[in-house]
Amino acid sequence: MSFITLTLIDNHPFNAYSLFPMKPLLFNIILIFSLCIYGCDNFNFNNPTIHLWTNKEEILPYIEEFNKQHTNFKIEATFTQTIPEDFETMQNKPDLIFYSLPEVILHESIFESLDGILQAAGVNNDNVYKNLLEIGKYRGVQRILPFSFDIPVIVFRKQAEEKPGEFSMSIKELRRYTKANTIVKGNNLKGLGFSPLWNKEFLFYTAMLFGADFRVTSDNILVWDENALTSAIEYLRSWINESAGSFAREEEFSKKYVYEPKYKLIQDNKPGYYPISYYFSTISEYFAIPQEKRKNLDFRWLTYNNKIAVPEKILIFAIPSGAKNSDGARTFLRWIYTPSVQENMIKMSYVYNNDTFGIANGFSIIKPINEHFLPEYYPLLIGLLPPEEYLIFPNPLPQNWEKLKKDVITGWLIEQIAKTGQISSLKEKFK
After folding, report:
1. Which pLDDT score is estimated for 166?
2. What is the mean pLDDT of the chain?
3. Distances from the Cα of 293 to the Cα of 157, 162, 289, 409, angstroms
4. Is pLDDT above 70 for 250?
5. Taking every pair of C-alpha atoms in the chain, what is the biggest distance, in angstroms?
6. H and E: helices and strands count for the chain
7. Does position 379 have pLDDT exceeding 70, yes or no?
8. Which of 16, 318, 356, 389 could form a disulfide with 27 if both were Cys (CB 3.0 to 4.6 A apart)?
9. CA distances (Å), 298 to each of 120, 151, 168, 307, 361, in order?
10. Please, are residues 346 and 377 in contact by the beta-carbon 8 Å criterion?
11. Which residue intervals of the chain bear CATH 3.40.190.10?
12. How confident is the model at residue 28 (pLDDT cuts 50, 70, 90)?
């Protein structure tokens, strides 16, 4: 018998559709109370339980498969939207946590060392992204273990008149294509190849590529490069004015023509006329589009000076100090980082036509998985995987990073792009 217990906290509406193969039924069961997948093999209820906390549904298939394969341990997953503020002093901590990087970085000092886990899983040091591993080190000790990461892309029609190179598209190229695809009839803007304003993540992404370098200090203070941020805003301002004529004109066009999903917008229009030609996305979102609906689409990595900024939502594992079943948690980690296990999970996801891309909706920390195995199931990746030296992994960020970015930083970016004249300092928003 394999068994998963899922407990919901904070009434968080988790979507279990990433499980395979009984998606709708599993989703409904989760919303009611808990999920149990029953079999009839030899399961010993006296075996130790591994308590895992997460808010990421991508881990569910891995838990299911681990529980099927192991009779000496089983995992019970508790879904909690955030890690409690008093986590460090809590008496009953979980044995293992699975969150995105900013959600746990504040607590890195109270996690157990995970040095040696990858080697025990059969992963050579040369086969991992070293700069990504460094993110999880605290005073030289690996306390947070990255698992997977996403990469931004620009999506376009295969029949687009202006096509980038075979590997990537630079921001400068995208700006040039935007202007070439601008359509003006009389005083009306009828077509716009691309706009930085269509996806707020693009504004932040551009700032990072320009060197904004947001990071948190050892004193938990958020800092950044003000000059780089100013340069990014000036560039985005001039881009919008050059292509649309003004911020207001671009907004008017977007309200009239731009809707979701954008992959339909760049395909389903009158022959020879498309209001937009390119849009910003991520590789996981691209492969989440049904295959039949993306057969006429293509993508490229978005670069600036041959660099690609990896989004900060890197999925990680950590074991809290004092975990009651640290041995079980380590057994699970050795299993899940084993290359043959990751290969099998990718295969299962593909066979069951799962919406989850690659490893937990991203690329694995293990380079050979990305370079040799993923392209077998995602042929579009053949010859397109970005070299390691292109990737800029995020700095440590505050635990409330997502809220800060959404409510403060992104709003401030839009304000500064929309107005004319001198650019205000972001520091004023934090006074």
Report:
1. 74
2. 85
3. 11, 21, 7, 34
4. yes
5. 77
6. 17, 19
7. yes
8. 16
9. 39, 15, 11, 20, 19
10. yes
11. 5-149+312-392, 152-309+400-430
12. very low
Beta bridge partners of 303: 170
Secondary structure (3-state) at 277: coil
CA distances from 176 to 155, 192, 207, 430 (A): 16, 12, 19, 35
The residue whose two tokens read 């500064």 is 416
Residue 17: closest CA among 8, 30, 5: 30
- Does the structure show a pLDDT above 80 at 34? no
- Give me the mean pLDDT over the 184-205 stretch: 90
**CA proximity to 101, closest of 256, 232, 215:** 215
Q: Which fold has domain 5-149+312-392?
A: D-Maltodextrin-Binding Protein; domain 2 (3.40.190)
Top-confidence residue, 48 or 117:
117
Token pair belonging to 288: 């989440």
123-155 pLDDT per residue, tens? 998 999 999 999 898 888 999 999 999 999 999
Task: Give the number of C-alpha atoms closer than 13 A to the C-alpha of residue 356, restricted to the C-beta side.
Answer: 29
Four-point Cα dihedral 25, 29, 30, 32, nearest 10: 140
Which string of DSSP letters, residue by residue, matches 42-89? ---TTSPEEEEEES-GGGHHHHHHHHHH-SS-EEEEEE-SS--TTGGG
- What does each C-alpha distance from 428 to 217, 400, 423, 431 come to in angstroms? 19, 19, 11, 5
Q: Which of 137-146, 255-264, 363-372, 373-382 is predicted least confidently?
A: 255-264
Rounded to whole angstroms, how far apart are CA atoms 309 and 210?
10
Beta strands in 255-326 (DSSP E): 278-282, 297-303, 308-309, 315-318
Rounded Cα distance, 302 and 394, in Å? 16
**186 Cβ contact list (under 8 Å, min separation 6):** none
CATH class, domain 152-309+400-430, is alpha beta
For the chain, helix, strand, coil in percent to 5 are 40, 20, 40
Task: Please check the confidence at residue 18 and state whether its pLDDT lies above 50.
Answer: no
